[in-house]
Amino acid sequence: MAILKEKRIIGSIETVDLPEIGLYQILAKIDTGAETSVLHCERYVVFEENGHRFIRCFIDGHPENHSGQLIEVTFPIYRERTVKSSFGQAETRHIFITKIKLHNELFDIKLSVRDRSSMTYPMLLGRNFISGKFLVDVSKKNLSKKSL
């Protein structure tokens, strides 16, 4: 009989930190239907330097209240992929790797950016991040903060 590694439980909405970006207390919607995690970004620029591709993002430092105080961060692009939005439109997503703090633990996360200003939550955690680490209880919220 295989021994299952115990997985932590997260709710449908969690509050997370992205310390390498300088974002803290970000509300993230858990979306098991989305493959990739995504963060709200006002705008971004993709560029090449010394044969490597990078993404420079301009991210609201307080996305919940649309403060307009932009943080500029640059990451090497890990990969690019074409995804279809929930509206059926195809677009290229530039994915980079950063750190996320959840359940008072740091994890690597593959993250893309896009304009989510019309969405309720500035961040979406997809199944590539959730899988193997967490179980989702959709009837709860902020279980990672309650476990501290």
Could you walk me through the main structural features you see in this protein, from its secondary elements to its overall organization?
The relative contact order is 0.32. It contains 2 helices and 12 strands; from the N terminus they run βββββββββββαβα. The mean pLDDT is 89. With 148 residues, it is mainly beta. Strand 2 and strand 3 (23-30) form a beta hairpin. It has a domain at 8-40 and 79-146: Beta Barrel (Cathepsin D, subunit A, domain 1), CATH 2.40.70.10. The strands form 3 sheets. A 7-stranded mixed β-sheet has the order 2-3-11-4-10-9-8.
- At the fourth CATH level, what is the homologous superfamily of the domain at 8-40 and 79-146? Acid Proteases
| Low-pLDDT stretches | none
CATH topology annotation of the domain at 8-40 and 79-146: Cathepsin D, subunit A, domain 1
**Mean of residue pLDDT?**
89
Number of strands: 12
Question: What is the gist of this entry?
Answer:
The protein has two helices and twelve strands, in the order E-E-E-E-E-E-E-E-E-E-E-H-E-H. By secondary structure, the chain is mainly beta.
Features:
148 residues, mainly beta, Cathepsin D, subunit A, domain 1, seven-stranded mixed β-sheet, three-stranded antiparallel β-sheet, 55% strand
List the helices and strands and how they pair.
Blueprint: E1 8-11, E2 13-18, E3 23-30, E4 37-40, E5 43-49, E6 52-60, E7 70-76, E8 79-84, E9 90-102, E10 105-114, E11 123-125, H1 127-130, E12 134-137, H2 143-146
Parallel strand pairs: 1-12, 3-11, 4-10
Antiparallel strand pairs: 2-3, 4-11, 5-6, 6-7, 8-9, 9-10
